Structure formats: C-alpha cells, structure tokens
Backbone:
C-alpha cells in the first residue's frame, strides 16, 4: 500500500517537473510560430536594423533598432545606478551591520521587491518626472533617465538579496585568515570577500538586468515612448516591452503588425534567455 | 492526516467552482459581456449601471483594453458587444465572417477631440494643415504657427488607442486612410488621456489631443479650422452637436449577430432619450435628432 503511494507521489512530482519545461517549450513554440511569420513580409535585416518603427504606415515599417537601443539605454542606465547601490547595500547588510539591523534591513529590501511596478510607475510619473524635468531644464520629464531611475529601484532588491546570500556564504575562515594577517576590515571586504563572492555577485547583476529589460508598465509610463534613435539619456525613448504592451490591444490578428509584435517578443525572449544563461554559468563556475 | 484534510478541502472548493460556473452558464441569456475602447469604458459602465437598476435580473460586465481588443473578443466570440471608437477594418470583418459572426454596427454617441496646449501658450487657433505639420514633424517651432520661439513638444496617445488611429487618419492624413503622413518618431506616445493632461499642464511647449470629456482648466483647447482661412471653432458640446466643430468621431457598438433578448434591450436603452442623457452627463456628445 505504502509502496504504491510512494510510486504515485514520485510520478506526480516527476510530471510537475517536466510540465514546467514543457510550458517553456510551448511558449517558445507559439512565440516563434507567430514571430517568424513576419519574415514572409519583410527581411530580417529590415527588422533588426531598420531605424523607423511605423506600423500604421502604408507600407508599414518595422525597424526595431530604435526600440532595441531604447531598451538598451534604459537597462544600461538602470544597471549603472543599481549595481553600486545594490553592492554597497549587500556589503553593509552582509558584513558591517549588527545582527539586529541586518534583520530589519533584509526585511526592508525584500519589501521593496514587493512593490508592484505600476505603483513605481505612478510615483515616478507624479514625483520623479517633474524633478528630472526641472533639474535638467527639459521640455518633458519623461526620459530614459526617469525610466532608468525607477527601474534601478526595482532591480536593487533582486540584486541585494542574491549578493547578500553569496557574501554570507563566504567561509568564515577566509575572513579570519585575512584579519589575522593584519588586513583591515575594509581591505578584507574588497580584497577577500568580494572576490570570493564574485560569481554570486555577477549572477545577481545579471538577474537584476533580466528583471529590468523585461519590465513593461513602469517604463511605458515614464519614458515617453517616442521611437527615436536615442542620442542622450535625457531624451524620451521607446522600449521593446512598452511597444508590445502599447500596441497589442489594437492590432488586427494575423496582420503583419501582429506578427511584428511577436517577433519583438522573440527578441526579448532571446535576450532574457541569454542573460539567465550567463547568470547560471557564473553561479555554477565556483562549484567546479 | 493533515494532507487528507487539505486535499478534501481543495476538492470541495473545486466542486463549488464547477457548480458556480454551471449556474452562471444558465443565466447567460441575462448577462452581457462588453469589451473594447478605453475611451468608452466609463460611458459603457454608466449605461450598464443604469440599465441594471431598471432590469435587476440582468448583469452586464464592461471591460476596456482598446478597440482592437474588443473587436478581437467579438471575433473569438468572448464578448456580446464590442465598444469601438473606430470602424472595423475589412480584414477584421472577414475574420469575423470566417468565425461565423455577421457583425452589426450601431452608432451610439459622438466624441469630439480637442487639441490642447499649455494655458500660457499664446497660440489660440490652428488649421488642419498646421496640426498635421506639427504631428508629422514638419513644423517644430511654435513661432511657425504664431507662437513664441520655442521647440514644440508633441504628445500623442499610443497606437492601441482608437483616438490615435482616428487622429492619424482624419487629421494627419486629412481623411485619406492610406495617406503617406506619419506621426514623427519624436512624438511622445503616452499610455492614457490623463498622462497627456498631466504633461500638457506641466510643459509650456507641449501640444496634445484628447476627448472633449477630459479637457480641464489645467490645459487650453485651441480653435480648429478644417480649411485654410477659417472659420476657427472651439470644441464644445454645442459646436460638436451642430457639426461646426470639425474633429468629431462616432462611437460605435458592434454585435456578432442581429441583437436579441437582453442585448437588443440594452442597445435600445442606449439609443433612448435616457441613454443619450447619460452620454451628455459623461461629457460625450449625444447623437442628437437621429443623426
């Protein structure tokens, strides 16, 4: 009796494990099916390197270069802001803060992760964008920088909690050895602990980037969505995610525009897949 | 033992769900699903609430998502009425036919679009040609249309909005659906009418467009002339109703077949005097005398 039960439970768990992978494959299949249909109408070069995104023109133009660069600028900006902040925060929580403060800070950072992106977008629109506008004397506060700032806030909790885990996982003996050799606390942190935790830190950064590049709602509300080739971080940009979100509602099913949005989804899927892959490589590097 | 309790608990919930959906399925003749244009969500909701007060046995659910979303739902048979602020495209009509729906169109209200600028902007009136020039990027400075020497910040709704499509086809392309005119890449695409109000009220160099119902004292509507020399007309309920204001569009209902039962009653209510009075209170323009 017990054996039969064990058998069934084992099989159910196995099935669940496979189901997760199956879903990913199915999602990829449907994305590819509709996304690749676009290339019956236009060439891959026109799609990837075209500089005009005009889906409602006659004939429509589907160049995603401005959208791709828009995503890139926003993501890079967010990463540049989030990485130093996140790392400082993780080091403080993991190494410097006293135990009681550590618990409070960890809970606080995790709470930051729980804020819905629409709320961040809303706060960004009403508080952040006027500040950016007045600070730089711009005609509008809806710029790539505004988006980057808001997204940095969303990436920091992901980064901090993974970085902190890997910093805490550095063996105590490393730290003790370094201090015994006469290194100061700070020297120990940046010469011993950070290098020892580097694989986890890189994984944290990559996962943070993955979160930022896939984010939609906040960037749509904050970046102004003008599909120009970005020249400065103080100009409006349009990201790939915002384009899909903004235009999906109005496309005619089975039209070129519809396929083009799926093709963008395919590009995004490829990018996040690559990022996760790199993060995974970094995380497992140490274990070899 | 604990797991068993949990499992039976889940089972009970699941069974309840099934019964629930069965009951709802039975009531479906009295319940209507309405989907579509974000411009019309509030209007649809107001109609639905009033109708449900008069007919308590009915239930009407109104959701937004964009005109295209509503039409797609109609094609897939997941809604009874699609609210749209543009007409169905031939491609969509064909798809609907393929799925066995014979789409019927009902004009239910009129929406006037206002072109708005910052209250401090000295520009009071614009022609279609000037507006088209501004939004397509040919005119980039306010001094070209009689304003200050200041770069124009152009704001538009994003492409999922029926308002965007209407503005593109009727003003930028001046009624020629397939015209070559485009929104310039520099145009900011904002996700909502409220976002346009916020930006225009904060930026002295901004110009945007939105439904008459959204115009607030924080922004200034400009008078518009279709022909070059005038007359220039300010948007208002009266000018939209007597058709002197040139930028007004019909708001439509689409059904998948000839309306029957509750759907028919609901459309009848919408077109009745009471229904059109609701249109007025929601800041849209009533159809008037059998327009």
Residues:
């Amino acid at each position: 009796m017990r054996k039969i039960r064990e058998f069934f439970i084992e099989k159910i768990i196995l099935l669940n494990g496979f189901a997760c992978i199956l879903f990913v494959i199915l999602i990829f299949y449907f994305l590819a099916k509709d996304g690749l249909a676009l290339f019956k109408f236009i060439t891959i070069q026109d799609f990837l390197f075209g500089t005009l995104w005009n889906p409602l023109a006659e004939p429509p133009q589907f160049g995603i270069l401005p959208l791709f660069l828009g995503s890139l600028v926003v993501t890079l900006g967010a990463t540049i802001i989030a990485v130093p902040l996140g790392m400082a925060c993780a080091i403080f929580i993991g190494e410097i803060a006293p135990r009681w403060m550590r618990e409070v800070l960890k809970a606080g950072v995790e709470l930051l992760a729980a804020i819905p992106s629409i709320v961040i977008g809303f706060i960004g629109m009403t508080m952040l964008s006027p500040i950016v506008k007045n600070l730089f004397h711009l005609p509008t506060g809806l710029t790539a920088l505004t988006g980057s700032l808001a997204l940095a806030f969303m990436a920091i909790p992901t980064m901090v909690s993974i970085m902190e885990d890997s910093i805490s996982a550095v063996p105590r003996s490393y730290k003790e050895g370094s201090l015994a050799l006469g290194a100061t606390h700070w020297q120990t942190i940046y010469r011993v602990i950070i290098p020892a935790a580097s694989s986890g830190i890189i994984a944290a950064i990559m996962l943070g980037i993955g979160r930022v590049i896939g984010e939609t709602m906040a960037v749509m509300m904050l970046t102004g969505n003008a599909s120009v080739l970005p020249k400065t971080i103080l100009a409006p940009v349009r990201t790939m995610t915002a384009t899909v979100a903004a235009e999906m509602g109005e496309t005619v099913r089975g039209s070129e525009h519809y396929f083009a949005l799926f093709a963008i989804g395919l590009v995004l899927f490829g990018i996040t897949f690559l990022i996760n892959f790199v993060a995974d490589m970094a995380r497992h590097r140490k274990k070899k | 033992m604990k797991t068993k309790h949990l499992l039976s608990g889940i089972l009970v919930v699941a069974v309840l769900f099934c019964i629930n959906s069965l009951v709802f399925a039975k009531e479906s003749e009295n319940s209507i699903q309405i989907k579509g244009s974000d411009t019309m969500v509030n209007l649809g909701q107001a109609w639905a609430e009033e109708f449900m007060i008069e007919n308590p046995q009915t239930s009407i659910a109104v959701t937004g998502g964009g005109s295209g979303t509503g039409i797609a739902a109609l094609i897939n048979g997941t809604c009874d009425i699609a609210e749209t602020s543009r007409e169905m495209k031939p491609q969509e009509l064909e798809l609907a036919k393929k799925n066995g729906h014979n789409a019927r169109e009902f004009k239910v209200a009129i929406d006037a679009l206002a072109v708005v600028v910052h209250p401090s902007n000295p520009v009071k009136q614009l022609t279609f040609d000037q507006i088209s020039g501004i939004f397509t990027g040919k005119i980039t400075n306010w001094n070209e249309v009689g304003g200050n020497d200041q770069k124009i910040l152009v704001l538009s709704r994003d492409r999922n909005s029926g308002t965007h499509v209407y503005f593109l086809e009727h003003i930028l392309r001046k009624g020629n659906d397939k015209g070559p005119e485009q929104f310039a890449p520099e145009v900011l695409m904002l996700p909502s009418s409220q976002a346009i109000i916020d930006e225009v009220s904060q930026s002295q160099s901004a110009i945007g467009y939105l439904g008459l119902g959204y115009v607030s004292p924080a922004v200034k509507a400009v008078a518009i002339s279709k022909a070059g020399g005038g007359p220039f007309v300010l948007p208002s309920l009266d000018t939209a109703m007597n058709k002197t204001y040139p930028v007004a569009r019909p708001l439509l209902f689409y059904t998948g077949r000839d309306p029957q039962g509750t759907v028919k009653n609901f459309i009848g209510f919408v077109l009745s005097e009471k229904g059109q009075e609701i249109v007025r209170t929601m800041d849209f323009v009533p159809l008037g005398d059998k327009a």
Q: What stands out?
A: The interface with chain A takes residues 65-69, 72, 75, 89, 91-92, 95, 151, 153, 158-162, 164-165, 168, 178-180, 182-183, 185-191, 195, 198-199, 202-203, 205-206 of chain B (CB under 8 Å).
